[in-house]
Design a protein that fits this description.
By secondary structure, the chain is mainly alpha-helical. It is built from 7 helices and 2 strands, in the order αββαααααα.
């Protein structure tokens, strides 16, 4: 699942999904972008069936940018749309390469606070 999330983040970041979300521009021509993302297609992502992946991408990006308030909101959103606690934690941990350990520790602190607010901290 993490590989899928990182792939989707890269595709989105480099604008490979066209305005309709289901097209990729390759070599100047528009070609259908169809692929299997754990049983879903890129088209399904564009039409909103994978909200948790989008929210996990936001959590990853905001972790690296060290945006505490925004990462808090997107952690809540990710959990609300079906991401697991383990997925959120893993996405945050993976950002150590991009943002360094201090931003990861900060995001994990925020994550713990979110879980406490939701009554899910064990």
């Amino acid at each position: 699942m993490l590989r899928v999330i990182l792939l989707v983040c890269l595709v989105s970041a480099f604008g490979l999904l066209g305005p309709g979300g289901a097209q990729a521009s390759v070599g100047g021509s528009d070609l259908p972008f169809r692929g299997s993302f754990t049983g879903s297609s890129a088209h399904n992502l564009a039409t909103g069936e994978m909200h948790s992946v989008r929210e996990l991408c936001a959590v990853a990006s905001l972790t690296v940018l060290n945006r505490e308030r925004e990462v808090r909101a997107h952690i809540h959103a990710a959990l609300n749309v079906g991401a697991t606690r383990q997925e959120v934690a893993e996405v945050i941990f993976q950002q150590v390469t991009y943002g360094g350990m201090p931003v990861v520790v900060e995001a994990l602190r925020v994550f713990k606070e979110v879980l406490e607010e939701r009554g899910e901290w064990e």
